[in-house]
From TrEMBL:
<feature type="transmembrane region" description="Helical">
    <location>
        <begin position="367"/>
        <end position="396"/>
    </location>
</feature>
<feature type="transmembrane region" description="Helical">
    <location>
        <begin position="417"/>
        <end position="440"/>
    </location>
</feature>
<keyword id="KW-0472">Membrane</keyword>
<feature type="transmembrane region" description="Helical">
    <location>
        <begin position="520"/>
        <end position="546"/>
    </location>
</feature>
<keyword id="KW-0812">Transmembrane</keyword>
<feature type="transmembrane region" description="Helical">
    <location>
        <begin position="460"/>
        <end position="480"/>
    </location>
</feature>
<dbReference type="Pfam" id="PF08840">
    <property type="entry name" value="BAAT_C"/>
</dbReference>
<dbReference type="InterPro" id="IPR029058">
    <property type="entry name" value="AB_hydrolase_fold"/>
</dbReference>
<dbReference type="InterPro" id="IPR053145">
    <property type="entry name" value="AB_hydrolase_Est10"/>
</dbReference>
<dbReference type="InterPro" id="IPR014940">
    <property type="entry name" value="BAAT_C"/>
</dbReference>
<feature type="domain" description="BAAT/Acyl-CoA thioester hydrolase C-terminal">
    <location>
        <begin position="151"/>
        <end position="301"/>
    </location>
</feature>
<keyword id="KW-1133">Transmembrane helix</keyword>
<protein>
    <submittedName>
        <fullName>Peptidase S9</fullName>
    </submittedName>
</protein>
Length: 548
C-alpha cells in the first residue's frame, strides 16, 4: 500500500506539473503565427525589359566614364568620402542617381562599383558616398538621421556640372530602402526612386517572415519553426535595438515619384510578393500608379551563382540595362500610360510565408527577461551543486577532526539523490536544447539543409524534457511524502510518545533524518536547486517542450 501511495503521489505530481508547464507554455505563446503566403502573383511575361513610348533611351556603354573622388561634409566635425562617376561629353541636363547603402556596406570604393559605372556609361551621373559608421552600429540605427546625412550627398549631386536637379533620384537596396522612404516622403522634388530588395515592412515583422522561410528551406522541424519566430516579438530595448520597430509604411503613403521595385526570386528574406502589392496599394491611394516591378532569378543583391550574398558574384545580365532604360525613360517624362512593357514582369516569384500584421509578445515580454530566465536555469543548479560539494568537503573535514565515522543526514530521505539527478539531467537537456537551436539558426543563415537525423533531434529533445519532468515529479512527490510522514509522526499517540521518550533517553540518535534539510547551508542549497529547477521548467515551457 505504501508503494502504491507513493506511485499515486508521483503520478499526480507529474500530471500537475505537465498541466502547469503546458499552461505556462500557452501563456508564453504570443498567439500569432507566420502563415503561408497566398495567393501568388501571376506574371504576364518573364521578359524583364523596360521600354517606353517616349522614344529611344541611351544604352549602356554609349559613353566613356570619368571617376572623381569628392568629400561630403555632414556636419562641422564629420566628413565622408564619395565617388562620382559621370558620362564623358554627355549633354547637359542629364539624369543623376544617388546610391544608398544597404546593411553591412560602408566604403564607396567597395560597393556599387559595377552598377554605378554601368549607369554612368548610359548617360546617368552617379554618386556613391561612404556610409557614416560613427552613428551606425549593430544596436543603434536612426533612419531619419541617416536620411538627413544622405541629403547632403543629394545636394552635391544635384549641383554637379551637367546634372539636371529635377531629374535626380535614388537607388537603394535592402535596409537602405527604409532610409529612402524617409527621403521620398520629405522631398517631393525627387525625380524617381529605385528600390531593390526592399523589406517594405518594419524589421521585426519582416524578419519573422524571413526566419520562417529560412527554416523551411533547410528542412527544420515544424515544432522548432513555430518557436523561433516568437523571439522577434520580444522587446529588444535592453539590447538597444529600437530600430527593429521603425515603421516605413506611412512613408510609402507619400511616395509620389515614379518608382521601380526589384526583387530576386531566390531571396527568401524579403516579402517579394506581399511587399510589391503593399507598395502598389499604398502609392495608388496617394495617386501614384507609376510603379514598375521586376523579378529576377537572383539573390538578395540581384546577383547570380548563389542564393547567399557572396563577394565576386556577377549581376544578372539584364539588370543594369533595365535600370538605365527605366531611369532615362523617366527623365524623358514617362508616365504610367507611356510604358509599352508590363508594369509587373519577370521570373515567377514564390513567397513562402506572409509577413505577420502583429508580433506582440506573450507572457515573456523582453529579450532581457528571457536571457535572465535562461541564465538562472543554467547557473542556479550549478551554484547549488557547487554549494553541496563545498558543504560535503567541509562536513568530511569536521568528521575527521571529531573522529566521527558516519555523517549525519543533511537532506530529507531520498531528496539528495533526486536533487542531483533532476538538476544534472535538466542542465544537460537545456544545454542540448539551446545548442540545437543555435545549430539550426546557423544552418538557416547559411541555407545549409539538415538531414533526417538532425531533424529528429527536436522530438528527441521533447522526450528528454518529459523524462526530466518525470524526475522533477519524483522529487516533488518525495518532498510531499516526507512532509506527510513528518506530520504523521508529530500527531499525539503511543508511537510518538515512545519516540519522544527514546529521543530523551538517547540524544545522539535524535532525528538523524530531517524532513527536508538541516542547517542553513543545506537549506540554501535546497532553495537554489529548487529555484533552478523552476527556472528550467519555465525555460522548457517557453521553447514549447510541453506544448500539447
Amino acid at each position: 500500500m505504501h508503494i502504491l501511495k507513493r506511485l499515486g503521489i508521483a503520478l499526480l505530481s507529474f500530471l500537475v506539473l505537465l498541466g502547469l508547464a503546458a499552461g505556462l507554455g500557452a501563456l508564453m505563446d504570443p498567439h500569432w503565427r507566420v502563415e503561408p503566403y497566398q495567393p501568388h502573383i501571376s506574371l504576364p511575361t518573364a521578359d524583364t525589359s523596360i521600354v517606353s513610348r517616349r522614344g529611344l533611351t541611351t544604352t549602356e556603354g554609349h559613353y566613356q566614364t570619368k571617376e572623381t573622388h569628392v568629400t561630403v561634409r555632414l556636419s562641422q566635425q564629420v566628413t565622408i568620402n564619395a565617388l562620382v562617376r559621370e558620362p564623358v561629353d554627355a549633354p547637359g541636363g542629364h539624369p543623376a542617381c544617388l546610391f544608398i547603402h544597404g546593411a553591412g556596406t560602408g566604403r564607396a570604393s567597395e560597393v556599387y562599383g559595377d552598377l554605378a559605372s554601368a549607369l554612368a556609361s548610359a548617360g546617368i551621373t552617379t554618386l556613391v558616398p561612404d556610409k557614416r559608421l560613427d552613428t551606425y552600429t549593430t544596436f543603434h540605427r536612426d533612419y531619419p538621421a541617416m536620411a538627413a546625412d544622405y541629403n547632403k550627398s543629394l545636394e552635391l549631386l544635384r549641383s554637379w556640372p551637367g546634372v539636371d536637379p529635377s531629374k535626380t533620384g535614388l537607388y537603394s537596396e535592402s535596409e537602405g530602402t527604409w532610409i529612402a522612404s524617409v527621403m521620398t516622403a520629405n522631398d517631393p522634388q525627387l525625380a524617381f526612386s529605385i528600390m531593390t530588395s526592399p523589406p517594405v515592412y518594419p524589421g521585426r515583422d519582416q524578419m519573422s517572415m524571413a526566419v520562417s522561410s529560412y527554416l523551411d528551406l533547410i528542412g527544420a522541424p515544424s515544432g522548432l519553426r513555430e518557436q523561433i519566430p516568437k523571439l522577434l516579438g520580444l522587446n529588444f530595448a535592453p539590447l538597444g535595438l529600437e530600430y527593429a520597430d521603425f515603421d516605413p509604411l506611412p512613408n510609402w503613403d507619400k511616395l509620389k515619384a515614379p518608382t521601380l521595385v526589384n526583387f530576386g526570386t531566390e531571396d527568401a528574406s524579403m516579402p517579394i510578393e506581399q511587399g510589391a502589392r503593399e507598395l502598389q496599394e499604398r502609392t495608388k491611394r496617394a495617386g501614384n500608379t507609376n510603379v514598375t516591378v521586376r523579378y529576377y532569378p537572383t539573390n538578395h543583391q540581384m546577383r547570380v551563382g548563389s542564393r547567399l550574398s557572396k563577394p565576386g558574384l556577377p549581376l544578372e545580365e539584364h539588370y543594369t540595362h533595365n535600370l538605365e532604360d527605366w531611369i532615362n525613360a523617366v527623365a524623358l517624362g514617362a508616365q504610367t500610360g507611356d510604358w509599352s512593357t508590363p508594369l509587373v514582369a519577370g521570373s515567377q516569384p514564390r513567397q513562402l510565408y506572409r509577413v505577420p500584421t502583429s508580433t506582440r509578445a506573450g507572457l515573456v515580454k523582453s529579450i532581457g527577461g528571457l536571457m535572465v530566465l535562461l541564465a538562472a536555469s543554467l547557473t542556479l543548479p550549478l551554484l547549488a551543486a557547487l554549494g553541496a560539494l563545498c558543504l560535503g568537503v567541509a562536513g568530511l573535514a569536521r568528521r575527521r577532526l571529531r573522529g566521527q565515522s558516519s555523517p549525519r543526514a543533511r537532506f530529507g530521505k531520498g531528496i539528495s539523490a533526486l536533487l542531483w539527478a533532476s538538476g544534472a539531467f535538466g542542465l544537460l537537456t537545456l544545454g542540448a536544447l539551446l545548442t540545437y537551436i543555435i545549430f539550426i539558426v546557423a544552418r538557416a543563415m547559411s541555407l545549409e539543409p539538415i538531414n533526417r537525423l538532425q531533424a529528429a533531434y527536436w522530438p528527441a529533445l521533447r522526450v528528454l524534457s518529459l523524462l526530466w519532468l518525470v524526475l522533477l515529479a519524483c522529487l516533488v512527490s518525495q518532498l510531499i511524502s516526507n512532509w506527510l510522514q513528518a506530520r504523521k509522526s508529530a500527531q499525539p499517540g503511543p508511537s510518538s510518545a515512545l519516540m519522544a521518550c527514546h529521543a530523551r533517553q538517547s540524544p545522539h540518535t535524535r532525528s538523524r533524518q530531517p524532513v527536508l534539510a538541516r542547517g542553513w547551508g543545506h537549506w540554501l542549497v535546497l532553495i537554489l536547486a529548487l529555484l533552478g529547477l523552476v527556472c528550467c521548467l519555465l525555460s522548457f515551457a517557453f521553447w514549447g517542450m510541453f506544448s500539447l
